[in-house]
TrEMBL record:
<protein>
    <recommendedName>
        <fullName>Polymer-forming bactofilin</fullName>
    </recommendedName>
</protein>
<dbReference type="InterPro" id="IPR007607">
    <property type="entry name" value="BacA/B"/>
</dbReference>
<dbReference type="Pfam" id="PF04519">
    <property type="entry name" value="Bactofilin"/>
</dbReference>
Length: 98
């Protein structure tokens, strides 16, 4: 999905979102990857975010990977998501004696 222009609202996709140089997005976004060449204000949750030299991000991000290229701007809070350990639960079989 490529955004050139203004958008205000909620976007959810399993694909990649690109905010072009003329794009201005406000709201909440969930995607596999977000590439910002324009401006984003709000909350983003996903695998990764790339802020390009013309990109500006203001708000909160929850991601596994962050790339901010020289001159890219990020102001806000970031939470790096780590792979959560998988817990194996053992169940005990109960003997039913008759």
């Amino acid at each position: 999905m490529h955004i050139n222009g203004e958008f205000d609202g909620v976007l959810t996709t399993t694909a990649e979102i690109v905010i072009g140089k003329t794009g201005f997005v406000t709201g909440e976004m969930k995607a596999k990857r977000l590439i910002v060449a324009g401006e984003f204000k709000g909350e983003y949750k996903g695998d990764s975010i790339d802020i390009l030299p013309t990109g500006k991000v203001f708000g909160e991000i929850h991601v596994k990977n962050v790339i901010i290229e020289p001159n890219g701007i990020f102001e806000g809070e970031s939470k790096i998501i780590r792979e959560e350990a998988v817990l194996k639960l053992e169940t005990k079989a109960t003997d039913k004696k008759k």
